[in-house]
Amino acid sequence: MAISIRSSFAFTTKAPTDALLQFAVADIPEQELLSCKTGLTDAARCARIPAQEDIGERVWVRADGRFEVQHEARVEIRRQMVNLASLKQLEPHQMPAAPVKYLFDSRYCIADKFQTFVDDEFGGTSGGARIEAIRDWVASKFTYAPGSSGPETTATDSFIERRGICRDYAHMVVTLARASVIPARFVACYAPDVTPQDFHAVAEVFLHDPGSESGGTWQLVDATGMATPEDIVKIGVGRDAADVSFLTSFGLIDLCEKDVRVERV
């Protein structure tokens, strides 16, 4: 089954302002890009650069006045589906070098504060079973409430408030996984059942790959329940939302329009 994506947004500036955009579907083996078309307003400067882990790309623009983005893509999901609970946890000394950085604290995910909590709440579980327990805990304890959080909301804030949007759910899963010594990262994505439709965010955790003796595999986790690995289309990954926002400005801007439509076809 293919997934069709159409997204657009526009912002205005009062003076020439640099912005870093990340909105396009990533062209990676786990999702076959069948078609893709992107339109950008002319800008004084525009440069495309690889995004983190070479998953997707970013676009630098220098905008002056109104700037518009339109993106259309059609994607076939090719990733391997596994039983998450069956995956074991890698011991730290067994981990490859690349995922180790996703054990560290980041701007929105201060994991070391939650080490005692995860031991108390999820003791007796490990690996994929621990991740399922974390996902289910966040899903049951949090209320999905648009407008209840903002750009400065951390996982610690969300833990106290017990409400938020997809980025807050993802930050909480990432934080509790890292506190459990499981590498975890933030994934910006599209998915067809997100309500209301918008850019979406989920977590991704690194566990033992049963198909290899000592290798690992990244597995997607969505505590909101609105997306599954079968229909998540990745845009990019990072330590948390600060690394993979669809729009990061380095000056004052006004986001005036945004529309996302994702469908199974």
TrEMBL record:
Residues 158-225 form the Transglutaminase-like domain. It comes from the Bacteria. Pfam families: Transglut_core. This is Transglutaminase family protein. It comes from Alteriqipengyuania lutimaris.
